[in-house]
Structures
1.
Amino acid sequence: MRVPIIYKKLTFRVGFRADVIVNDLVVCELKAFADDNKVFAAQLLTYLKLTRKRLGLVINFNVPLIRKGIQRVVHS
């Protein structure tokens, strides 16, 4: 999904491309990686700040149980 960004009266029509945004509330970053990488949570936190959303999920599909691959990120 293309997400426009407005920064100091500058408008970027495609600021970044979000994997999934649910009900205009939750930003989901979908990954398939072998180890736990903190870079993906930091990337999602940046997306939350840019979109002014509070909740995001990093979902890793490279795990035996999907519930073990979900990381919740909250921007306060």
Note: The mean pLDDT is 90.
2.
Amino acid sequence: MKKISSVLACALAVAVSLVSCSKVQDKSDNLKPRLVIMTDIGPADVEPDDNESAVRLMSYADRFEIEAIITSIGWNCDPYPPEWADYLYRVIEAYRTDVNNLMKRSGQNGFLSLEQEQGSQELGYWPSADYIRSRSVMGSPKAGIGVIGPDNNTAGSDLIIKLADEDDPRPIYVCSWGGANTLSQAIWKVQQERSPEEFKEFLNKFRLYTITDQDMVYAMRMNRAYSSHQWLRRDFSQDLMLVWDESAWLNQNALGVQNWDKYATHIQNHGQMGKVYPHYLWGVEGDTPSFLNAMPNGLNDPDRPEQVGWGGCHQFGVSPDRETYAWVNWQDPLKSISNDYEHKFYPDEFNDFAARMQWADEGAGNRNPVVIVNGNGGLRPIEMQAKAGTVVRADASKSYDPDGDNLSFEWWFQVFPDDGALPEISDASAQKVSFKIPDDAAGRQLHLVCEVHDDGNFNLVAYRRVIITVK
């Protein structure tokens, strides 16, 4: 890295204009993201990856408010056999045992009442298995736009409408492990029954992340017009945030296969959930990026799909059907950029899961560091302003590890397609860094990420994003 001379650095520092966000955390920072899962979970010899993703999701039940798990159609089933839902219930029952150990991770001694659990849940709270089971319902048994209508209402579509109507300002992150037909049905029903203004408000509540397009059987996967997803993209792309991933899920599958020995060693047979974690068939946990995208770890804001996170990065553009628009990553240069980040994050993403499965098995283990940048705690991106040509300083020295582990630091700027030159960080592995804003960067936003690892078991990671608007 090039270094600015001390004289020049001092002169530029005087001219720095930095305005940080408030150091007072918003109360909503302590609440979990609201999550709805639509899964075509089934027998391990047909749909093992959904079983795997369900185990991982349960190991993060303290990080997500699991509002609904809806069993529905996917590539391997049309119609969805209702008895396949038993595979979801098997994972939940395994969680019922393991949660007693998992709660030790946050010092939790018991559960709220089921009525209290129906309200807003704070980060760190492990819900009861009874709560999760009460939120597990059946969705649309058939695929395609052709079934959307008055005869396709289900407990799943009714629950989605109920969730959106709750007095809760938080968005609802919908993760489509199979087809999103159940959400499509809920949208169709509300469109029939409410005013245009009310309907728009309903759509604005959701952020849909689809693992490719699975609202049809696999053999007809290129028949985009068959899918209700195309209808969502065509008619509602301005009001419904729809992320169509064609990068993160493929890497999740492939990297999982390449690293299967680690799953066999650190995931399978660890706790009761590890005992129901099956061997892969085609790939490993291809659906997991849908909720990793909303992971509250300080790396990204899931309401901003261009910010890279554990679920990749996306930009608004034409979708693979070349007719409709969504947040996508199927074309270069973004696909290559997202691919590179997915490979970078994969070891930490796996280690994070493995550490949680150790807790599930033993009731003890490592916990993640806490990153504090320029005195700002919390998880939301820190907003700053700076003038082009000035030197900016960032300080993460107040970061700490809850287990007293030593910390190591890595600072980096996110790469965006067609982006300009990025600043050169003085010492990217230091607690405190400085860098000069490029002279021609006025009008741009620079995204700086502070990545912190501990030296405990699995070398766990935490992040903090700093967004610098250049004046």
Note: Residues 1-25 have pLDDT under 50 and may be disordered.
3.
Amino acid sequence: MPTAFVHTCVRARDIDASLRFYELLGFELRGRLNFESAYNVYLGLPGGGDTLELTVNVGRTEPYDLGDGYNHLALTVENLDGLLEQLAAAGIQPETPPYAPGGREEVGRICFVADPDGYRIELIDGIFPTPQDPPHPSIGA
């Protein structure tokens, strides 16, 4: 049975602010689906599928509780420094300056930004090779 990853859904309070943010990251508006008390806005990256769904609950004014299970979405970008300049011009700053995780330059540089609802987005400079570390020491031998 073939399967494919279709999309991730996050909830948004201010769709205009969210669209501005995700468009800065390169996402394109692809479609909408209306419900009685909510609507979905579908976004995708050029050449890819509709991989991000923003759900807006009509009338919601309070921030969403992101819980402690969500951590981040990750995107590879062609020019991290250039994108960070564009984000800064829009008033968006990274959590910390770009860095190589664990000091490992072969993984590349990363940094995190947050969307208008607080969802963290990891920005990865260039191609991200899947790490091949041994099992974590806490797992045992």
Note: The chain has two helices and seven strands.
